[in-house]
Amino acid sequence: MRELSLNILDIAQNSVSAEAKTVTITVTAKDNLLTIRIDDDGKGMPKDFLEKVTDPFTTTRTTRRVGMGLALFKQEAEKCGGKFTIDSTPDVGTTVEASFKIDHIDRLPMGDLAETITTLVVAAPQIDYVLRYNVEDRGFGFDTRQIKRLLEGLPIESPEIVAYIREMLTENIKEVNGGISL
């Protein structure tokens, strides 16, 4: 993958497959460390599967025998002087966290995080998505539960709402970045 936002998309799709009701994505850039954390309240994984889940030949998919998402995310973090952890409890959920040294020459760019979140909302509107985005001492939050309440039953995936969400995320991310390129 060429962007970290695509890793986020892939891992969040795993949460959708795990029947999560809420997926929380936290992005924090502080003190030369970029940390990405994805939490879900899905099915979780048993300990024996969790121990081998970052092996590219371990997957729950029946259409193919390779699952590269977590393996690549782990590899990217470790090659950039960061760390990768995954924790999961059956019937509780899963947490994936990766950190990257921001100034490492091999660190992938963040990419279009606004488009990633928008894609998730459109692809699985029944799931609630929370984004916590922080750069140094600036930050903002996004929560589809708040938007759904304001919509009073209108579908969140309608084109006008999707355009609003994409624009709002893009503007807030740009403002929080404050000229820093992640």
Fold topology:
Blueprint: H1 4-17, E1 22-30, E2 33-40, H2 47-50, H3 69-79, E3 84-89, E4 93-101, H4 113-123, E5 128-135, E6 138-143, H5 144-151, H6 159-177
Helix pairs in contact: 1-3, 1-4, 4-6
Task: Give your account of this protein's structure.
There is one protein chain. This protein has a single domain, classed as Histidine kinase-like ATPase, C-terminal domain (Heat Shock Protein 90). Helix 1 runs antiparallel to helix 3 and helix 1 packs parallel to helix 4. It has 182 residues and is an alpha+beta fold. The protein is built from six helices and six strands. Helix content is 37%, strand content 25%. About 4% of the residues have low confidence. The two termini are 16 Å apart. The chain has a six-stranded mixed beta sheet. The protein is globular.
